[in-house]
Amino acid sequence: MTARLLLATSNPGKVVELRALLSGHSDLAGVTLLTPLDLGRPLPEVAEIGTTFAENARIKALALANASGLIALADDSGLCVDALGGDPGVRSARWAGPTDADRAAALLERLRGVPASERMARFVCAACAAAPGGALAEAEGVCEGMITEAPRGRAGFGYDPVFLLPAFGRTMAELSPDEKNRISHRARAIAALTPRLRELWKKAP
User: Which of 45, 110, 111, 157 lies 20 to 30 A from 117 at CA?
Assistant: First the structure.
């Protein structure tokens, strides 16, 4: 297969993870992975107005596919905390402050005094690939864990330093990139989505 796949994100952390997750996959042999910067022309800024992760991923993928003429892969992901009624949810990237550190600190403050047995949470990722014209492939991945009482680790991004994986005894930010890319919500979503991508190239104009 000779084709191009546009990664519909400007988040450098996501770009690194997506390239690692997609590279070497047998279903993508011969596919060139591109970012909006690689195209050398402006693409639309897409407002995340959906009420679910799946809706936001779909909105982004379709907008970039139609603007670029390429198959576009987008994901929307976030943290859902049981004790907060599922917040920050789809607002994870813009909840309670402008930086990752601000948002993690606000989360810990909101959970001050909440016992460990009630700090359950999950990372959710909805991935969508869209062809120009509207054909879609979609998948979801979930990673269960709990919220720590203080940040731990320097790897990753977002809420990784406060998301504990009980089976590992470490936060997401304490895992190596290879470990994270085996078990993360994004890894699971992309693993489920990738085998479906060939059908999109068949449907693309």
Answer: 157
Q: 67-110, pLDDT tens digit by residue? A: 999 999 999 999 999 999 999 999 998 888 889 999 999 999 99
pTM score, two decimals?
0.90
In Å, how far are 149, 176, 177 from 9, measured between CA atoms? 31, 23, 19
- Per CATH, the number for 3-203 is 3.90.950.10
Tell me which residues are annotated as active site: 76
Long-range contacts of 46-50 (CB under 8 A, 24+ apart): 46/8, 48/76, 48/90, 50/76, 50/90
At residue 178, φ and ψ (nearest 5 deg) are: -65, -40
SS (H, E, C) 42-110: CCCCCCCCCCCHHHHHHHHHHHHHHHHCCEEEEEEEEEEEHHHCCCEHHHHHHCCCCCHHHHHHHHHHH
